[in-house]
Amino acid sequence: MFKKPLWAVLLLIQLFFCGDASAQKGGVVLALSGGGTRGLAHIGVLEALQEQNIPIAGIVGTSMGSIVGGLAASGYTTSELRKVVAELDLTNLLSERSNPIFVPLPSDSVSPRNKIPWVMLNKAGDVVGPLGGMSGVKLLESFAHLASRIQIVRFDELAIPFAAVATDLETGEKVVLRSGSLASAMRASMAIPALFDPWPVGGKLLVDGGLVSNLPVETAKEIFPGFPVIAVDVTGKLKTRNKIHSVVDVVDQSLTIFTSRNVELEIHKADLVISPPVEDIRIFDLSNADLVIQGGKNATLARMAFIRKLAEAAPPVAQREALCLDSRVAAVAVEGVSDEIASEIGRKYESWVGKPLSSIEVLRASRDIGDRDDVLSVDYRFEEAGPDVKVVFVLQRKPVLEINFAGYTTNLHPYRWLFVNGVRRDIVREGDSVKFNFKVGEQWGVDASYFDTPGKTPWEIRLSAYNWEIETANMGRRDWERYGLGFAKHFEWKSFKGGVGYAFEQMRGSSGEYFSAAGPTLFMYSNTLNDDIDPTDGALLSLQAWWPDNDEVLYRISYFRAARLANDWRFYFRAGFAEGDMKQEGRAVYLGATEELYSYSGRPIEAERMAWWNMAFRRILMKSWWGALNTEIFGGMGFAFNDENERFRDVWEAGVSFSIPGVLFDGKLMFLYNDEKDFKIGFFLGSPVWGRYPLP
User: Fold this and answer.
1) CA 632, CA 672: separation in Å to the nearest integer?
2) Strands (E) located in 262-400
3) Please, how many CA atoms are within 13 Å of residue 447, restricted to the half-sphere of its CB?
4) Is the pLDDT of residue 93 over 70?
5) Distance, CA of 120 to CA of 172 (rounded, Å)
6) What is the mean pLDDT of residues 125-137?
7) Residue 8: pLDDT band by 50, 70, 90 thresholds?
8) Contacts of 228 (CB under 8 A, 6+ apart)
9) Whole-prediction pTM
10) H/E stretch holding 12
11) Helix (H, G, I), strand (E, B) or coil at 695
């Protein structure tokens, strides 16, 4: 850390070379309360003060107050904050799983998209989670991106000095965050218990600061003595029974009960209290964001005469300038993992030492580290090291053992499963893992893969066993069991990821006879979608291929493209081609069997090869924290070919679908009509696991 004399010298140099730091008129300190999306009123408060040229000497925020306050303190103007809110996709940030129609997985995964966390264990076998309904990792990533414009060690160095308030889950004491990672401070301060996982900071496990100080007036008085404190209270009021309609309302009501008591203890200590009219706004409701912001602005303007008096009687606020001294990287450190992993990651970025600090490069490195399969989240902070800066990456590793439950069911075909899947890490050495999935139903399956490293290019050893029973539209009933063993070396090339390997297979046909084969394998995919949950741009290309006994190559190619047509309209296009072998039972292709065409999923068409395409126009009807209600108008065609490459069947379908992809519920209701003049109504709950055909 800087010694005080040295810091004073540097400050004088800064003031001399970087411009006039003239004193302004007196300013005020803001204590911004928590209150979910009601806290957007804080933007209106800031906007009113900005327009009336009232200097802000400091900000202390709790929960939502820490988010708005932290961004404002880091230099965001109120117009920029309004833009952030307008572009905020709360559904996306809170939804850590989703299954919109036609949106495939990044690769043909053997793990279901929708999972209910059941248990997480550490190396000692102790249960370590889940600790909340949502991990909040996406929120941290969003905060880190927003905060990447600043390079500071202490929050006092921000354009407006800032502090965030959180609660120590172990002791129940108030924790005031004034240094380190601004993103982590905001994430910890709004960690609503049960909804979000607690957030580790400085060896403590932190939750929402509203539990101990939802309106942090006392903290504001302690940090900024002598300045008048304006408390902005958006805590909310207790609802009557007829207004409690959902689990979110119950959580909101419970938080109001908890927080109202500590608010009463602190509110009278403020020099002025502003209470925007937001009591009817629900905790995660963004539909009236503009009204909430305007409510905060109007409430502030109504008290502007008194605010001016407070500011005029306050000490002057020195104008803060951006730090003009170039900081260089003194060292790179990694926390939260073993020395072995820390050393491995540190070596990758040791070339930064001695070079100018770049927040963009640090943010990019954080994302790269976060791609490791054993890393849950990555944050970073800067520490003073003489005149330079030490970059510290703070990692949260995923638990040693994760076990989840999932399921999939529909009335359109018999492929319905319950899934038990998970990951066991650190088996032979730190960072290796086994991923497994068991699916139980009329058709059963087992998949297990061992990865020797958590990076992007591991070696993989895979075991699999599947049972399939299919009632085809043209060849009657088919059933077989398939057992596979293979290995592959993963690779990354430009935008493509994949693997090359070798696989062995043994298959039992419906006659009871066993067949064996072996041959090289290839799988690869390219994912340029801008978002896996609600893609509005980009494409996904996937290829799986196997060459059994060097005879006929079996392969499957699929392509997906997304585009935004308007704010709430999306366009999806999906196409694919697959090559099989009708001479060998179980190696043919089955048009519709994996929902290429939904209306043919119950009685697919057996073929030597097949091609298909679908397109859909999706309209987002409603968004909330739990997910979105979408409607899709879609259509598609499929083509079946025999072993003479003759196209013997063309089929099509069209329909309308209503879907709710989200955190608590993932379902679709579909109305279908096809070329056979067959009208069907189908429902789908959960996400399927089709495996990695044609790979064993």
Assistant:
1) 12
2) 272-274, 316-318, 329-335, 375-385, 388-397
3) 22
4) no
5) 24
6) 75
7) very low
8) 28, 29, 271, 272, 310, 311, 313, 314
9) 0.82
10) helix 4-17
11) coil
* Contact call for residues 658 and 630 (beta carbons, < 8 A): yes
Q: Residue 554: beta bridge partners?
A: 546
Amino acid symbol at 650: D
Asked if the peptide bond before residue 130 counts as cis, ω within 30 degrees of 0, the response is: yes
Q: Does 506 score more than 90 pLDDT?
A: yes
**Of 491, 592, 564, 447, residue with least CA distance to 112:** 447
Residue from 516, 523, 519, 522 nearest 482 by CA: 516
Count CA atoms within 13 Å of residue 86 on its CB side.
8
C-alpha gyration radius of the chain = 29
Which pLDDT does position 282 carry in this prediction? 79
Euclidean distance between the first and the last CA atom of the chain, given in angstroms as a whole number? 58
Alpha carbon of residue 85 to chain centroid: 17
Per the document, the length of the chain is: 696
Residue with tokens 């043209």: 474
pLDDT at 95 over 90: no
> Is residue 321 helix, strand or coil?
coil
Contact 150, 75 (CB under 8 A): yes
- Residue 329: name the closest of 309, 363, 347, 353 by CA: 353
CB atoms within 10 A of CB 567: 7
- Share the mean pLDDT of the chain: 86
The pLDDT > 70 percentage for the chain reads 89
Task: For residues 183 and 381, give the distance between their C-alpha atoms in angstroms, rounded to a whole number.
Answer: 9
Split at pLDDT 50, 70, 90, the class of 288 is confident
Quickly state the pLDDT bin for 218 (edges 50, 70, 90): very high
* C-alpha 324, offset from chain centre: 35
Cα separation of 356 and 423, whole Å?
40
Q: Which residues share a beta bridge with 532? A: none
Categorize the per-residue pLDDT at 635 as very low, low, confident or very high, splitting at 50, 70 and 90: very high
Q: Which residue has the tokens 């006994």?
A: 549
What is the distance between the alpha carbons of residues 270 and 220, in angstroms, rounded to a whole number? 9
Cα dihedral 268, 269, 271, 276, rounded to 10, equals -50
Residues with a catalytic annotation lie at 63, 208
Other beta carbons within 10 Å of 640: 25
Q: Which residues contact 646 (CB under 8 A, 6 or more apart)?
A: none
Rounded Cα gap, residues 415 and 439, in angstroms:
11
3-state SS class at 435: strand
Q: Sort strands 28-32 and 56-62 into parallel, antiparallel or unpaired.
A: parallel
- Let me know: does 152 contact 382? Beta carbons within 8 Å: yes
Contact (CB, 8 A) for 358 and 329: no
CA atoms within 13 Å, Cβ hemisphere of 599: 25
Note the helical H segments in 33-136: 41-51, 64-73, 78-87, 90-94
In Å, the largest CA–CA distance within the chain is 94
Q: What is the pLDDT of residues 197-209, one digit of tens each?
A: 898 888 899 999 9
Pick from 479, 450, 449: nearest CA to 466: 479
CA 61 to CA 43: how far, in whole Å?
Answer: 13
Structure-derived torsion over alpha carbons of residues 111, 116, 120, 126, reported in degrees to the nearest 10: -140
Cβ neighbours of 678 (radius 10 Å): 11
Per-residue tokens: 255: 């938080």
